[in-house]
Amino acid sequence: MPSSCSIRALWILTNxxxxxxxxxxxxxEKRWRAACERDKSCKEDDLKYNVxxxxxxxxxxxxxxxxxxxxxxxARGFGIRINQSVExxxxxxxxxxxxxIISLCTKNEEEKNLVLWxxxxxxxxxxxxxxxxxxxxxxxxxxxxxxxxxDCGNAVGADESLSPLLLNLPSITGAFMVGHMIGDIITxxxxxxxxxxxxxxxxxxxxxxLTGSIGISARAKPVAAPVAGSTASGAATSGAMASDxxxxxxxxxxxxxxxxxxxxxxxxxxxxxxxxTNISAVKINGFSSADIPPADQKQPAWKPxxxxxxxxxxxxxxxxxxxxxxxxxxxxxSKKISGQVNCRAELEGLPDVMFPLIGLDTARxxxxxxxxxxxxxxxxxxxxxxxxxxxxxxFVLMRYQAFCGMGPPIKGFYQLSMVSxxxxxxxxxxxxxxxxxxxxxxxxxxxxMPFPRRRxxxxxxxxxxxxxxxxxxxxxxxxxxxxxxxxGKSVEATFPGTVKFAPWQPQRLPTSGAVLGNxxxxxxxxxxxxxxxMANVENLLMEKMNKDLQAVDLEEPFCWQAYEYxxxxxxxxxxxxxxxxxxxxxxxxxxxxxxxxEFSTQVTSGDYILWNTLGKCPVAATPKA
Length: 625
Fold this sequence. Notes:
ten-stranded mixed β-sheet, alpha+beta, six-stranded mixed β-sheet, protein transport, 31% strand, 625 residues, 12 helices
C-alpha cells in the first residue's frame, strides 16, 4: 500500500461535461501497472467489474461521467441507496461519502466493464475536478465487492465497509488537497489568510480609553503578502475572466497557471508543496547563495527560501459567528464560533517562535488543529504554550471551534405575516452589543430579508436607526455603516413596516419522481435548446422551483418547501468572543532577535439567522448533557 500520496491522473470538466484539461503522470501509472502485474487476482473474472489496467482517454472519461450523472441523478449522486439505485453504482454502497469519492465505469475492447476508483470529486464554480490517487488493486476490488452487496449501509462489525477502507488510504486526503487547490486556481480564489493591523499606532492610556468610550476606534487595514503578488493577481484576473466568459472551457492563461502549478507542486505525480504562495515566490525570486541555511540547521519544506528585510511578527485571531435565533420558549437559540489564528512572521534565518495561547480552557474549544510547522505539547492549563518554525507569508497557524463565551452580539426577534395575498407586514426588534464593553466595537451591521420566490414592488416603513434599500428579491436594512461604528454601548433598533409583491403567478410543478424519471429526455432536449443549461438533477430541480411554482397558502407564500428568515451581517473589532487571545509581550524568538510583535482580532458573521417567529423554522434536537 502506498505510504504517501501519489496522483495517477486528474481531469477538469465543464458543466457541459467536456474535458478541458487533463494530466497523467506516467511515473505513478507505471507503479500502478506493476502493482496489477503483482496481483494475479486482477486477471480473474470473478467480479462484475474488472480493474482497469490503464487510464481511459478524455472522451471516455467524459462519457463515463455523463453516464454516472444519469444513473446517480446528479454529479454528486444520491449518496444513499434509493429505489433508483442499481447494483454496481456508487449509491448502492449506501454511504454519503460516495458523493465526494466516486467511481466511473468504462468498457474495454471486449465490452467488459472497467471501474476507475477512487476518484475524488471537487466542484468549484462551473467546473468539476476529478483526481485519481494511487491505491492498491486490492482496495479497488474491495470497493467493487461493496457495490454488489445485497445489504446496505456500513453495518457495525461488518467484514468490509467503506469508512475503514478509506481511513487506510492516506492518498485520499492528499487528493482532496490537490483538487481544492486546482479549483482555487481555476476560479481565482488563491488568497492568503487575512492579517489585520491598525492603520495608526495606539497612543495608549487615557486617550485610548476616551476614544473607545465615545465610539471612536482606530481603523484596521489588512496586510497583504508582497511575495508573488503579480502572479496571484494574474491568477485572480484569469479566474474572473473565466467566470464571465461562456462556460465552455478554460482560457489559455488558466491552463498555463495550472500547468505551472502542477510542474512545481507535483512534477512526477507526488505532491511536494501545494502552497501556491511558496511556489509563486520561488518562481519569481528563484534561489541565491544567500538562501542557503546554516549547515547545522535543516530547512523545512514550508520555507523554500529565507526572508531578508525588516523583521516583525503579526498575529490576527479571526472568528466567525454562526447563530440561529428563534425567540421561542420551546426552541433554544444556538450560536457557535469557528476561529483561526493567522500569522505572518517576517524573520530572517530559521528561528523558532513560542508564545502562550490565552483562553484555551475558558473558550470551551471543541475542535483544534494546527499547521504542520507547529509543535504542540499536550493540552494542559489555561495558557497553552505553542512553538512553531514559521513559513513564508501569511498562514493559518491554528483552527478551532468553540462556544461563544459572551452573549449574542445581536439579539431580538423578526416577525413576518401576510395581510393579503401580495402584501406582508414585518417587525424587527433588535439589541446590538448588549453587555459588550470597549475595546470591542461593531464596525458595521446589516440585516437582509430575502424573498427569492417573490418580486418586491415596494415597502413602507421607517427604522429607528439606519437606512433601507430595496432590490428585486430582498429588502436590506443597514443599521450601522462602515466608519460609524459603535463601541462601549448597546443600541436598540426597531423596524416595523410592510412590503408589497408583484401578483402571484402560480403554475403546476411536476413531482420530483417525474423529473427523475424523464431526466434523460430532458437532458437531451436541454442540449439542443441551449448550451448553457445544466445537465443534472439538482440544477433542473432548482430551475423548476424558480419557474413552475405551485399555488401556495397565504401562511407560507415566500418559498417552495423552505422557511422564512432574515440574515444578519456584521464585523466586530477589538477582541474575540471566545476569549482566545495572545499577549505580544509573551512572544519569544529563538535565537533572540529584536522584532516587534503586533496582535489584532476581528469577528465576522457567518450564517447568523433570525428565524421568523410567526413562521416555520428548522431545528435540530440536541442531546441533553
